[in-house]
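Blinded run. Sample ID left blank on purpose so nobody reads anything into the name before looking at the predicted structure. Input follows.
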Amino acid sequence: MSDTTPAAETAAPHRYTAQLAAEIESRWQEHWDEHGTFAAPNPTGTLDADPAVAAKPKRFIMDMFPYPSGAGLHVGHPLGYIATDVSARYQRMTGHNVLHTLGFDAFGLPAEQYAVQTGTHPRVSTEANIVTMRAQLRRLGLGHDRRRSFATIDPDYYRWTQWIFLQIYNSWYDAAADRARPIADLVAQFEDGTRATPDGRPWAELTAAERSDVLGGHRLAYAAESPVNWCPGLGTVLANEEVTADGRSERGNYPVFKAKLRQWMMRITAYADRLLTDLDALDWPEAIKLQQRNWIGRSEGARVDFPVHGTAEDAAITVFTTRQDTLFGATYMVLAPEHDLVDAIVPAAWPEGTREAWTGGHATPGDAVAAYRKQAASKSDVERQADAKEKTGVFTGAYAVNPVSGEPVPVFVADYVLMGYGTGAIMAVPAHDSRDFAFARAFDLPMRCVVRPTDGRGEDPAEWEDAFASYDAAIVNSANDTVSLDGLGVTEAKAAITRWLAERGIGEGTVNYRLRDWLFSRQRYWGEPFPIVYDEDGVAHALPDSMLPVELPEVDDYTPRTFDPDDADTSPETPLSRNAEWATVELDLGDGPRTYRRETNTMPNWAGSCWYELRYLDPFNTERIVDPAVEAYWMGPREGQPAGGVDLYVGGAEHAVLHLLYARFWHKVLFDLGYVSSFEPFHKLFNQGMIQAYVYRDARGIAVPAAEVTEEDGAYYYQGEKVSRLLGKMGKSLKNAVTPDEICAEFGADTLRLYEMAMGPLDVSRPWDTRAVVGQYRLLQRLWRNVVDETTGEVTVTDAEPDEETLRALHKAIDGVSGDMAGLRFNTAIAKITELNNHLTKAGGPVPRSVAEQLVLLIAPLAPHIAEELWSRLGHTASLAHADFPVADPALAQDPAVTCVVQIKGKVKARLEVPPTISDADLETLALGDPAVTAALNGAAVRKVIVRAPKLVNIVV
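Blinded prediction complete.
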């Protein structure tokens, strides 16, 4: 580090030090706030509306919503925030109207759990955390339009979250029109008879409850009895994405069980095809697109009905299969333990001759199924799908009929079949599926070869060690009186059997998705209340807009009722249900005052982040979610962005199939209903890497404070004891967190900004090293010395013109930095700025003003405080935040000439001075015409000329 002793500072009282940096940074942050430097005008409405900006290019730059944690920030958190700030500042200096702000995603389980532990109300702790986080972020010099900031817990914000929920609730998906439409349109179809009711009765003859049930089958938001992930230890249900691979809650690590509860759901599956197709219009990392495609999981196949005789109305088990060509090979069926038909098909007693191995040792099929269901409920979906050697299951006592062969096939319940895919039922073709093969061997079930093996194993599955699976083999043993697939390839056989099934009304070609409807309710206090009430018949009623927001009431006990974490036989009790005064309410919804019961579940923490980009646009609009002209300006479709959306969205890759998928769904509903002109919320997505840190552990495996570890001869010690070192996450619990406040105090915010941007490519994870921060600190000190005299504080630049070498160095830097800024390559931009600054330092003497000013503008997006200070000292009265970013002179950005080597048979025969922009063709002509080359060829025939302009020509003779 440079000398900062008292003696040195006395000799150089105007040196750039941490103390001076703090004074400069504080002063300019106050200036920016006072002058509204980063306030972005809208073309209309509030927020200093300026119609002229409608013609101005814009950039909408966003970070993913931060959660205001009580632990505060460590230096890993601001990586993305600094990057978007650098990009926003650069875009502002290139003439764009830039919208860049930051709000807070403040509902959710962490604040509630903290409240339960400490007795502090979630709002109190959350708002205190927001104050702390805002102060930390402000200290970094982030150029946010602070007028547009908000938190999801603000009633003025969640009023519109509730309003959007009602738009979704009051909509249905019209498959013919391929879009959402108001539920009133569907009611009109039922009323005029153009659409029949499920049982054929006229709409007018249905009771209110019956109508509600019919519409619930179509609404995009609906309540239904659904299989859910019930976590007794948290007292709430969880989305699939909130459950770990080993069947425990992501938050708290409690066991999670399968249960059936009445929950609010979002019919996101209606949008599956559009969510897939529209990915092609987005500038997203391919890895994220792939994750979404896999999560949606589109597959083409057929629906097939297997009748189960002897049950009420001869129930049929419907399966979805992508291998309908193997239907003749189906020798048994399997239902997921949660399947609705299980109870309907289980007989009172075991059929005569049932094998003991199929019963699980239980006296009746009902006992066997109940016991197995309880066992399966304790397993996660990942565990159930794992290729375990031992396959488990029980016979239901029922037989279905294979529709192509007429043969009875036993129906089992087994946990390797999930309700989350297809219909929750499979036709098992054990000869050609490894999991079915293992199950058939375990339960001694028959196998039939219907795809001819091509590996010489023969056609008797009894002699096989595993199933034969192939999409490139002929079908065999697959014929009845009316259809034969024998000899056909897989594709032809699929088409033939699908036609045969459709002609008989027992199946059809169909598309299936892995995506399931979104579980949208939680049994918690700290979330958005639903704008739904229930009458005495249990019929749901949407509240009118005039009654929004439904505010979260103050309660004495906001603790969700939890249970023994291992007790699956429990059900949730919500904190709001204990507030009788709030939960029961008298309202007039148009037919006179009546008593209603409020919905006492709350929305999940994802709700508020599904649409926040729209609130940033028009945060004070009380009449509508967003002014159409404002939305069209900031997010509307345009050239190169056919879907519209945010111009740059930066955040972690961990949100690929949660927030990003949910937000896309909400936005598409709003698009269908005409509230927005963009059909995607985020045009360009960029995933920043992670700042990692070394974790030091003692012999017990306990993390020790990283700051107190010393290194000796390549080993690491804590209080004299040797410890291990491993690169990992940074965090308070790992005792390796470094706060931005510490770095700002020691070096200044601009140094921290530069270091985080210089550590490596933005999308790559990198290790934090506090000792390396000094490198960027020294860069700023050298920059300061090139403009300011450390002894007098006077500006030292000269009005003399720069020499040609300096001029070329400047324009090469401008050219490179401009491209790097546009491409988010901030690490290489810093390298080019450093190179230019070093050139000026080595040149000695006063720096030409014209070069100093351009250098200050180049570094301004990255280190804005010192840049503003130097800009001011150079005589400018206005902030450089809106100054023009330097533009390179192409003639000066290139070297005046490049030496090109000409080789014949690998030996250098000539050196040519050529322009750096010379084309391959021109360089070849020039080389072949050079006298030295002509002499060296001596009439030999040229077989090939390899040109690598502008530096190499290789001639083959």
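Unblinding after everyone has recorded impressions. The CA atoms of residues 743 and 770 lie 8 Å apart.
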